[in-house]
Amino acid sequence: MDILAKRKASIGDQGFLELFSQDIEDAKQFWYDVNSNSTLHDPTTWKAVECRALVPLPNVNAWAFSTWSASPLADAANNRGNAEHYFKKSTYAGGGATGTSRILEGWGGVVTNFCIPNYSLRTCGQRPMVRPLPEFRLKACGDKNLADGKNTRFGVLNIAARDVSVAGKRYLDMYASVWYGSGISEEHLEAERQHIIIEIVNLSLKAQEDVRSGRFRVPAPPAS
Predict the structure, then answer these.
(1) Residues near 183 by Cβ (< 8 Å), separated by ≥ 6?
(2) What is the pLDDT of residue 80?
(3) Which CATH class is domain 2-213?
(4) Which has the closest alpha carbon to 153: 35, 9, 6?
(5) Could you tell me the pTM of the whole model?
(6) Tag placement on the chain: N or C end, fewer CB within 10 Å?
């Protein structure tokens, strides 16, 4: 991964946009076709890629993972942890309550240039296609909008984390889903399912490494 990370850095964000310019245009048409073949107005018809991971992390609980995920270290880990991640640049406002990300990423054979403008807990309540997940206190959702000048929404991301006890041992329980219109194929969903499970496990392990080493200092949780 170190060699790959150096190669990515040498190409740079603009270099990737130029390298994948035709793929990006093809991806726009792919998502336009999915949307046009979907009943987007009916949230009950949306389809989801859903993944769950239960990971024993001695130094990371749900709060630590949530705050680490809102740090620049998470973007760096995201770019290093998967060969199909070309760039991800995030900013957070309101003490990390709302995030905005610019992303170039491939999954299922589609290289998509998109943004997430509203990654927050509030967005979850505004998107009826996602699961309510009342058992998860820490969660956030965000629209996946094409960088097409029109902010065409083609998906909705939902990530949640909580602490659970199994046989007296604490585990980090992570849920990740992406919701698409009903026109998406099952083949594409399966390809993304494999992509996401690798991603969330790699990110949790990197969070453990950064917290254990002291590279990331976990802030105190808000008073309940």
Answers:
(1) 33, 34, 35, 36, 37, 38
(2) 83
(3) alpha beta
(4) 35
(5) 0.93
(6) C
